[in-house]
Amino acid sequence: MLNRRNFTRLAGAAVIGLPALHPARAEARITIKFSHVVAPDTPKGKAADRFRELAEKYTEGAVNVEIYPGSQLYKDKVELEALQLGAVQMLAPSLAKFSPLGAQQFELFDLPVLFDGRESLRKITEGEIGEELLKMLEPRGIEGLAFWDNGFKIMSANSPLHWPGDFKGLKMRIQASKTLEAQMLALGAMPQVLAFSEVYQALATGIVDGTENPPSNMFTQNMHEVQKHATISRHGYIGYALIVNQAYWKNLPGDIRTELDRAVLEATEYGNSIAEQVNDEALEAMKALGTTRFHELTGEERAAWLAALKPVHEQMADRIGPDLIQQVYDELELDR
């Protein structure tokens, strides 16, 4: 675990990279370290690379963006603390990662069977609710810049997962989220919290029986090699928040930040526009390899999943906020 005592060397190194307050671009080149835990060939990885390209172009080389994918710098358990302490300037963590900071409202996005597609999702991430959620990070020294897509999840295991009863007794890996824990318990599974970088090995050795992921994450982490079955359930969503160290961001020269804001906007539009295609391509690639048998839920099976998972909304209302959940229901025109 990172803390202020053992973090001196890393944080000190980061301070060297902080920009001067003077607005002139002739100052020393500004470096932004951007760490994330997934592979470059994923929606987040591609969006990060596009941000780097645009940031360096629009600032005419005044900014150097260093991308560290695949948990090269930090695993997902410690990356937020690294950002707060200044050892890294930019992250795009999964939305489930903000609960340990006291922002459990972000577990809204972990609720199963809430969004029926990207159109309903956009109503939240690109509307007032999404804006208010990002503002909740400010007292924690974090500036929320945008929501980045990954996609809708599929379930995988070494046994078929057609009905809720098929999960009974299975050890299923989840992110550290009480809502995801409740989801797996509702299906009769035993939730196991593991860092993303540890999942492949845990599946390969039988520490866990299965997991949930968008196809792009499953494919780029080679989970299809160690999972015999997967169900295209689209039962939940994984997305990210693009965030920066607030003090670092506010201390950037005004003209530099203007160009970086432009790069963020265009990288966000790009990443979100390709997310569905990247996931579709990953799914087709795994099907072609034949190591995993994929199952599409029938209407009857989907109804059974919905009946099992919908009660999680009520169970998590006090944690996420009943008013917030009602706001989302109203925005999406859903019945409680």
TrEMBL record:
GO terms for cellular component: outer membrane-bounded periplasmic space. InterPro entries: DctP_fam, TAT_signal, TRAP_DctP, TRAP_DctP_sf. Keywords: Periplasm, Signal, Transport. It is found in: Periplasm. GO terms for biological process: C4-dicarboxylate transport; transmembrane transport. Belongs to the bacterial solute-binding protein 7 family. This is C4-dicarboxylate ABC transporter.
